[in-house]
Design goal:
Rossmann fold, 3 domains, binds glutamic acid, alpha/beta, eight-stranded mixed beta sheet, SH3 type barrels
Length: about 425
Amino acid sequence: MPGYKPGDKVEIETVDGKYTGILMERPELADDKHVVIKLESGYNVGISLDRIREIKKIEARIKRERFRLKRHKRDPSKRDISILATGGTIASRVDYITGGVHSAFSAEELISAVPELEEIANIQGRQIFNKFSENIIPEDWIKIARTTASEIKKGVDGIVITHGTDTMGYTSAALAFMLKTPVPVVLTGAQRSSDRGSSDAPLNLIHSAIVASKADLSEVVVVMHGEISDSFSLIHPGTRVRKLHTSRRDAFRTVNSRPLGRVSMKGIEFLREPKSDNKLKLDTKLEERVFLLKYFPGLNPEVIDNLVELGYNGIVIEGTGLGHTSELLFERIKDAIDSGVFIAMTSQTIFGRVNMNVYSTGRILQDIGVIPCEDMLSETAYVKLMWCLGHTKKPERLREMMLTNYAGEITERSRIE
Ligand code: GLU
């Protein structure tokens, strides 16, 4: 609105009555036919412009809330961790005067927002980029892996990566393949933004900092709320973790395995033996032309031809049950494989192991050359196929690599099945 700035205290007379409050910044997704003001009560109201009779400015822009930064002094008795921000809601704070959301990335800002962090470790903060995780692309995984490796080289004792929750499982799998790490690399996020009373951001950050600074573990893990209350968080292996709920604070679960452990204010309890001996190794070779295709009844078989024409070198098919597609696809799949495309199979059941020996459908697909992905998550198989194709295009070697357990993504078959 011309003549008014976010932060101005205004009185708005509408056809339904008067409202007094502070003019808010226009939310990113709002239309331009409404204004939003924060009432004295703390609630926000949106007012349609065509209902407004008159607006009076009562007080010019109230000074933006000063976010007081605490000076951070290194304590030599504590371990050092780096918090690397990539975006999402976790490392943000709301300016209650203007309603704007601001990123909190420097060590001082993070500690000021979550003072408990300073009790746990010496914190350094760094922003890699600022993206919603649905906008993250494979190139970003490489950036995160490189920055993480360079922080580890500087000698920190652990890394926390803050990340949007939507695609955190893809990034954690990518990092697990690209990075062998001597220190904990912990991804965390928040299901509820930090301006909500129910936000899980502070506790996820605190629990992640505990794992990064105190756990004797050399793996990429995800630390997120273990149940809806603030009692504990789970430590999930990076290649096994999936967001299984749109909004619950305990949306993240380990699939086809057990979480590595739990973390609470009392400390860390491992549920199984963590890895603790890796030397730093960064291997970011990726073939990006890989497609993840969900099979569904009625899928047009020509889709496979189209993917080949588009230049994809690998396709992960998320098949039905034990690892199947309709027989109508067999010929197209065979042609694709004969033309040099690698095709791997996961299951849309999510839980359980692909077994393509049970039914003739599975056996035919195997004979054609489809690689069964054991008990890998589809997202993990997709990332792994990219990583393996970054290393070889030889069919036998590729198959061998896909079936080798590099980062905890495959469970050894039990003898009794
Ligand atoms: N879609 C956003 C993301 O994944 C949601 C916010 C969040 O989860 O942090 O980045």
